[in-house]
Design a protein that fits this description.
Length: 376
């Protein structure tokens, strides 16, 4: 493979705007077509971003210059669309989650492997300079040996801002499968594969109301728990706890901390590509009547900041360079397995053993990565 990798995008919804903004700025990628169920929406997105062609999903799969399909459809059809792309001989990058069940998702990975094709999956915030700078600091021993981690995502819910939020409260979403992939992918990248999980979940309201857009005022059903508490035990003996909620009056996003033998590492929001990274040192002697301030010691962020689409670029370069990409289908499958196991636990199964694992650690991204360099 030489020259820019030809990319076709399927799904012209809200998230396609940021993907196309970034993908059309990378010299190593050439977006040649946008497809959607509603071709007028595909046409609008294509023209907005200077993409030469538009049409249906079938038009994307049939396009001779498309080597890699970016699947931005709703979660319920992620596997179906990705499988069609594999059958058409295309590599696939898909938005999270990779699938909604283990069986069809595992089959998708097997089919891609048999065809000699690659699958990558969001979140690609894992490649951002914020997370990667923190990961390099952790590996360099900034807090000694890691012991445990904490994660939290709390919001009033996407029904307040999304014009069509129903799918975010349907099976395959909710805070666990919509936001959980960011946090669990980060934890797995830092601490390794998960061995078992336990969770509890609640559904605060059976129906929610759309607050913005043309459907504002409409009421829809809530199919999944909207607050989930999770405990994860990792294969190496480490542990983590997480909270994911669409029911919190207090907005608290992006809490991710790793605690070690010599301090705590505060990481950026795993849903963002940059942010504050800090190390907190132990106090030493602590008296009952003293609670001194614990300063946050800045950890430098190194690397070029972009956004969604960075995983597509890494995958395109990895295919051309015959190396592993970072956000692999195997990583996404393990994260999905963890989240589905948490769902099963929350339904009353107690601790659930995670069936999948990873053959190798998630790669570290070099600090000198330049998305805007021409390398192919």
């Amino acid at each position: 493979m030489s020259g820019p990798v030809g990319v076709g995008v399927i799904g012209a919804g809200v998230i396609s705007d940021t993907y196309l903004t970034n993908l059309t700025s990378f010299p190593d990628v050439a977006v040649v077509i946008v497809g959607d169920l509603h071709t007028e929406r595909a046409r609008a997105r294509a023209q907005q971003h200077g993409v030469p062609s538009w049409g249906t999903a079938d038009d994307v799969l049939a396009h001779p210059d498309v080597q890699l399909v970016v699947n931005l459809t709703v979660p319920a059809v992620h596997v179906e669309v990705s499988a069609a792309a594999i059958a058409a001989g295309k590599h696939v990058w898909t938005e999270k989650p990779l699938g909604l069940d283990r069986e069809s998702t595992a089959r998708l990975l097997r089919d891609a492997d048999a065809a000699g094709l690659r699958i990558g999956s969001a979140p690609d915030t894992l490649l951002g300079p914020g997370f990667q700078s923190a990961k390099r600091a952790l590996l360099a021993g900034a807090i000694g040996e890691p012991l445990f981690a904490q994660a939290s995502f709390q919001t009033q819910g996407p029904d307040l801002w999304h014009p069509g939020p129903q799918f975010l409260f349907a099976h395959g979403a909710g805070p666990l499968l919509d936001m959980g992939p960011y946090y669990v992918s980060a934890l797995v990248s830092l601490l390794g594969p998960v061995d078992r999980v336990a969770a509890i979940g609640t559904r605060a309201r059976r129906r929610r109301r759309i607050h913005t857009g043309p459907a504002a005022g409409e009421v829809f059903d809530v199919e999944v728990p909207t607050t989930v508490q999770l405990i994860a035990a990792f294969e190496n003996g480490l542990q983590a706890q997480g909270q994911f909620s669409f029911d919190s009056a207090l907005e608290r996003h992006g809490v991710l901390e790793v605690h070690g033998t010599e301090g705590t590492l505060v990481l950026p929001d795993p849903n963002h590509f940059e942010g504050v990274i800090a190390r907190v040192e132990p106090l030493g002697v602590l008296l009952d009547d003293e609670r001194p301030e614990q300063p946050w010691i800045d950890v430098p962020q190194e690397g070029v900041v972009v956004g969604r689409g960075l995983g597509v670029l890494d995958m395109a370069r990895a295919i051309a360079q015959d190396r592993s990409h970072v956000a692999t289908g195997e990583l996404a499958y393990h994260v999905l397995d963890v989240l589905l196991s948490a769902e099963e636990s929350a339904a009353g199964a107690g601790f659930v053993t995670v069936r999948s694992t990873l053959d190798q650690p998630v790669p570290v991204v070099p600090s000198e990565l330049d998305p805007f360099a021409r390398t192919l």
